[in-house]
Amino acid sequence: MQALEERIRKDGIIKPGNVLKVDSFLNHQMDVSLFVEMAREWKRLFSDRTINKILTIEASGIGIACIVAAEFNVPVVFAKKSQSINLDGEMYTTKIESFTHKKSYDVIVSKKFLSKDDHILVIDDFLANGCAINGLLEIIESAGATVEGVGIAIEKGFQQGGKLIRDRGVRVESLAIVDSMDCETGSIIFR
Ligand code: 5GP
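That is the input. Now the predicted structure with guanosine-5'-monophosphate docked in place:
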């Protein structure tokens, strides 16, 4: 999506360790008009699918996912990061390895908000190694719900996540795919 690529070129900051900072418009300060454009693009891309719920993960997916939910006119559920998993059987749980923070954490979704009747579009800001999306897919699987697709704002195409998720037969629509970036020169090449 051209508007997103242009914005990444203009305001994205490449950090050492293959981290792209987009906190001036995507995941700290948020450009909601851009989110609306992104949501419309996912609505177009997934127009052949029947979607009744959006699933994302806290924290940075939530803002984008809310705008997407408004565009699809469906509810949005976010997986919560949790210190201690309660084992009373009321929650779907999984473990996720964080790319940016290099540690693993548990995430939970209440069984009240996900069921076998749900047709889910998963939304997140970044796809890197695929751990976050993989965890969300595991939760959807535990619920017996159907994944209609995954919508990603920025996929880092030089990391393995996109391939891993697509190889599982899941449709992934990334609005910008970064094939390479260089923190010395600031150059970014999109697919
Ligand atoms: P993954 O689980 O695919 O390895 O990483 C995805 C998660 O890590 C995303 O939810 C995102 O919050 C974070 N992340 C991964 N790479 C980047 C990056 O280059 N920049 C930022 N800002 N977040 C990232």
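The first strand starts at residue 13 and ends at 15.
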